[in-house]
Amino acid sequence: MTTDTTTLLPHALPTCVNARIALFAMRRMGAHGLADARAAHAFFTAFGQGFRRPLVLMRVLMAELASTAAGTIAIAPCCCARMTPAEAALVSILGRIEMAPEKARLLTTDLLGVRRVENVLMAAAAVTAAFADEGRPVS
Fold first, then answer.
1. Which residues are CB-neighbours of 1 under 8 A, at least 6 positions away?
2. Which of 49, 83, 92, 113 is least enclosed, having the fewest CB within 10 Å?
């Protein structure tokens, strides 16, 4: 039995550049820890002098995801040109948290396998707001 990339990574990368920045940071922090230098550099490059707030809030989001999840959250290496279902859900949560919070809540509960996801949703909303405040809305 053979498996191809579209079976393991069924979702295309987001078309939104800002969502790709968030995805890159999630992949780096998920694989290498919250203090990953490449994730910090990507935020500095994208946000300039205003990089600290989005970076710190992304770290908070990743810590909340890790501490709340009932199981593992599958992430792909940074070089992958496709996304795992979990990554697609995370990007979708960031894109929907402001305009469709109930859909974001449902996605989050499905992703994490727990009912109480308020801390994760608050962190996701803060990340989304920080991106938007710096002129980089996630869609």
1. none
2. 49
Backbone angles phi, psi at 79, to 5 degrees: -80, -10
Residue 96 token pair: 């929907």
d(CA 57, CA 125): 10
Cβ pair 11, 87 in contact under 8 A: yes
pLDDT band at 7 (very low <50, low <70, confident <90, very high): confident
The pLDDT of residue 5 is: 64
Could you give the C-alpha distances from 96 to 44, 76, 77, 89, 139, in angstroms and in order?
A: 25, 22, 24, 10, 8
* Domain count along the chain: 1
Domain that holds residue 91: 11-133
Q: Give the integer Cα–Cα distance in Å for 57 and 126.
A: 7
Distance CA(51)–CA(67), nearest Å, equals: 24
The predicted-structure confidence for 112-135, as pLDDT tens digits, reads as follows 999 999 999 999 999 999 999 999
Full-model pTM: 0.93
